[in-house]
Structure formats: C-alpha cells, structure tokens
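@channel sequence for tomorrow's demo:
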Amino acid sequence: MQTGISLGIRSLQWFWLAFGTTIAHQVFEWFCWRTQLHGKLLASIFGKMGFPVYAFIFSLFCILRFLTVTALAIANRYTLAADRVLLKVLAVILTVPALYLFYSVARYFGLKRAMGIDHFDDSYRFKPLVREGIFRFPRNGMYLFGFLFLWAPALWFGSVAALCAALFNHLYIWVHYYTTELPDMKRIYDRRSTIF
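structure tokens (generated this afternoon):
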C-alpha cells in the first residue's frame, strides 16, 4: 500500500481518498434523495434548479470516484503478482459490458432517470421499468455492470490497492441499493422492485 506516488500523492493517501469519495458520494445521494422524496427540501431551496444542482454534484462525485481509483492504480501499479498482458485483457473485457451499460442508459433509460430525477419529478412514477438494452438481462444492470469501469484501471495497472477500492465501490453500491434505492422505488412506483 505504501508503494508509489501519483500526481505527488502517495498510494495510501489515494487509497483513503478513493474510499472517502465513495462514502461521501453515497451519503450525499442518500441525503438528497430522502429529503427531496419526503420533504421536497432541494426544490424548496433551489426551486426548478433543485435537480440540476443535485445532478451537477452527483456527476462530480462519479468523476471523482473513477479518477481516485485510477490515480490509486497508477500510484500502486504492478503490485499484483499476475501476468500483465492477461490483466490488460481482463481490463478490456470488463470495459465492454460497462460501455454497453452506458449506451443502454443513454438510449433507453435516460441520464436524468439514472441520476434519480424520479425523486424530483412526480411524472416519473408512471413510467414503466426499463427492460431494453442491457436491462433485458438483469433488472439492475447499472450496479452489476457500471462499476466494472472501476475494476478496469485496477486490472490494467495491476494494482492490489485499486482492486480493493474497486471491490469496496462495488459492494458499497449494493448497500445504497438496499438501504436507499429499493425503499424509495417502492414508495415512488408503489410496487416491489427486485434485482434480477
């Protein structure tokens, strides 16, 4: 973990930044979703700009999550005892479903809906769940496949620390799903949601 530096920051510092960014993002999302859904807090503060303000900060967190894991992978590179060519091939393979997910979100689901506009706009409660693109397979393709983007740099650079951060990101999103998104979907859409 102590090995290497990226952008003048040591591996251990990148490690904690990657974990901290993940936690901060999910806490931010939980707070915004819950206060908006139950009390229209952001709408009362920002009016029609409530969702754009939230979406801007949400997007920054998404970018930071990827950047911190990538910077950690670079700082801690080649600490995984495995064939580098094989790791790079695995990184590319994992990127394919992640790219298909982002295509499916843009084509069928919509970026606004992916960010949680259904917490801000009541008209979304009448929209059906999406079953096209990657969503034809598992119902929750975003959490299964989207976070493969974080595994890719960890594998590409062969970083043990970045693999730990990618795993934490992938596991922690399921905490978000079960504690925030699933209860919210039941309230918004008034029906049970399942993962698969």
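heads up for whoever presents: The first strand starts at residue 5 and ends at 6.
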